[in-house]
Amino acid sequence: MTAPVLGKSYDRPASLDAPRAPRRQSGNNFEKYAWLFMRFSGLLLVVLVIGHMTIMLMLDGGVHRLNFAFVAGRWSSPFWQIWDLTMLWLAQLHGGNGVRTVIDDYARKDATRFWLKTLLVISMLLIMVTGTYVIFTFDPNIS
């Protein structure tokens, strides 16, 4: 029996992993790249969202000018389509990566992790595909 260190005993059953405890060791660097992606996408999202909010809510009359015609005019420019598409994709990937980390940390069973991640990927793809479709096929001349 080992002596307790700072009030903790190391005689706990092996099934009670601490959150963030690695479950598998693999030779790839996926977690490192996922961590880096979170930092860089977060910084880029801050710039994109602050720019979006400034343009949409503060400049040229603010929120009172936001209507269908404003969106139609904005999305007639490829620049704004790419801006909004980048915001959509980065937000989905950034948020999905965060939820994936939470699933890995707290889902105990492999099957539970699998199904939660499957639902996560399906929902992310559905939102990204639908959002991309709307941005690029938006028709300002609705009859």
Automatic annotation (TrEMBL):
Keywords: Heme, Iron, Membrane, Metal-binding, Transmembrane, Transmembrane helix. One of its GO terms (molecular function) is metal ion binding. GO terms for cellular component: membrane. Signal peptide: none annotated. SUPFAM superfamilies: Fumarate reductase respiratory complex transmembrane subunits. The keyword Plastid does not apply. It is found in: Membrane. The keyword Transmembrane helix applies. Its main location: membrane. The chain crosses the membrane at residues 33-59, 79-102, 114-136. Pfam families: Sdh_cyt. Residues 1-23 are annotated as: Disordered. CDD domains: SQR_TypeA_SdhD_like. This is Succinate dehydrogenase. It comes from Nocardia yunnanensis. The lineage of its organism: Bacteria, Bacillati, Actinomycetota, Actinomycetes, Mycobacteriales.
